[in-house]
Each structure stands twice: as structure tokens, then as C-alpha cells.
What we know:
Blueprint lengths: L1 H6 L3 H20 L26 H8 L4 H13 L3 H4 L7 E2 L4 E5 L11 E5 L2 H16 L15 H6 L8 H15 L15 H14 L1 H8 L4 H8 L14
Antiparallel strand pairs: 1-2, 2-3
Helix pairs in contact: 3-8, 4-6, 4-9, 9-10
Amino acid sequence: MVSEFLKRQTDFQAEKHRSQLIDIWKYFVANGWAADNIAEKTLKPIRPEKNRTRHSNESVEAIKAICPPWLKLAIDLAMHSIQRRADLVVMERSSINIKDNTMTVLQHKSLNYDKPVFIEVDMHPELRDVVLECIEHAMKLRCPFLIATRPERITEHNRNVKLHAFAVTEDHLTKQFKKYRDLSGAYDHLEPNQRPSLHDLRALGIYNITQKYGKKYAQALAGHATVKMTDHYLEGHEAPKPEKISYR
């Protein structure tokens, strides 16, 4: 039954579910409720390698040209803040200190770490500009979040799943980006599964910031514990220019 269940999943889902089932059966065995960890006896799914290309600045500009204003701001914020989707949609106006020119983020992905990643960094000029635009837009909607939009209609379901009536969920942001990416025709030469995603904006942003402000600043802004992770995001772009670090 476990094996048949895993076969019905995608490779990515099966890998996650199998890992969780193994942990569940470990608990069963430890309590004497099962003799063997049957989940471990299933075949380990082989997740295919990602075959996705990188974004280019020209293609991102083509996407932004046809986007609604709120999504254009979200793309710019993603590019210049180089934060993950989960952090972008919950970034509040209160996390920005205009006077000190700083942005503060407690990165969602790190909450289960022994030492969660809490960053407070100086905003580079492009980031400051887009943050100010986001604040102005959000204040018009009286929304505390930097990424905000007025939905066509507000349902009870939306109220239950959203942090604010005009806030944007991770899923909605991803789907809207994908929609306008494909409408723009910027990646028509690629198969759908090869087209870069919303998350891939992070890699382009890290590359751009490394080129202009240095790898150390890009590493700090991204919240990477090691430069090796920053280098991982730089793969696929041109070789970076000699490092130039910008200090406040």
C-alpha cells in the first residue's frame, strides 16, 4: 500500500512523503507497534535533475512590461532584495528603517534551524527605491505588507488563508509570475519545464548585486551562511568581475 501510494506521486512528492513515512514507522517500531520499518523497504524515488535555464535582465524587463503594477513591484523587490518567496510575501513596512536605511528579515526557511537566520542589512540604492515604491503602494491600500494588491473579490476563504485582505499568498505570486512570464513570450523558445521560475529571480538578483556591490554584500543580503551557497546561485551566469565591496 505504501509503495502504491508513492507511485501515484510526482518524484518530488514521493521523495518527501517517503522520508516522512520512514520517520513515522520508526516511531511505530520504537513503540512495538510494528516489527519492521516497511517504508524503508520501498524504492527510493530518483528525482530528475532540474533542466531550467537562468533568467536574463532583458527577459525580466519584457515580463515586467506587461505586468500589473503590484506584480512589477513584487518582481523588483524579489530581484533587489534577493529574498525567497516565503519571505517576500510577509515582508512588512515595519521591517524597513528608512532613516537608518536598513531592511530586517527573519528568513522563514531557517526557522527550524538551531540558529535561525536573522538579517539586518543596509539597503543598496536600487533596493531602497523599490522599497519606497512598495511602501507608497501598500499605504494606499492600508496594508502592512510590502507586496499588496486589491483582489477582484474578497471571499471568506481568502480571509481565512491570507494575513490581510490585500496581502498576496505565495501560491498566487508564483502563479501570476508564471502567467505573465508566458504571456510575455520571453521564453517561448524553451519548453515549459525549462523556463525559469519566480525563485530563479533570486539567482539573477544575486548575480547583479555581486557585479555591482560585491559578493560579500550579496552573501549577507541573501542570508547565506557560506560563500559556497552564494556561488551555487551564481552558476549559469557569466563569470563575475573582480570583487568590489561597497561599504556604507
